[in-house]
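Please, structure for the following, as tokens.
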Amino acid sequence: MPRTGGCRTDLRTSTDASETAQKEAQRRLDDLSILAGTVGATGPGVRLTLSDPEGTIGASLLLDTVQELRDAGAEAIVINGFARVVAQTWFADDDESGGVLVSGKQVEGPYVIEAIGDPATMAPAIDFRGGIADRVESRGGTLSVERVDSITITALADVVPPEYARGDS
């Protein structure tokens, strides 16, 4: 006896599965684009302001600050509104300006670091005894940590293709 309706049900199920897979792929692309810094991002987070009147906050302290934020779950980070921080970001002291180079972009104090993630987790990760705040103060600077309901990061990371790594095909 021939089946009727089975093909229609199979087709509907196949279409639903295809739409679900497409939506999931788009969600993953959106998430990875934020992490790669190729799109802007908005969400709750923290705003750190590191004042450096003596010029003693350098690349290594800024890198340590970014690492603490990452460890605390930061999903998107920008410094001074224009230097987007991603996996390939590098930090170096700029002897000419007394500031810091962030992937070749010159940033100078006061350093404002905005990070999107859970403010209740990130704020304490920065402001604990012996942590980043104490290190900034020991160098003559000040650090303020502000929990923010909505941060918008529009700066994008420069896309640099990998020189050595290749995908498995």
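The chain has a mean pLDDT of 88. Strands lie at 41-51, 76-79, 83-85, 91-93, 100-102, 105-107, 111-116, 142-153.
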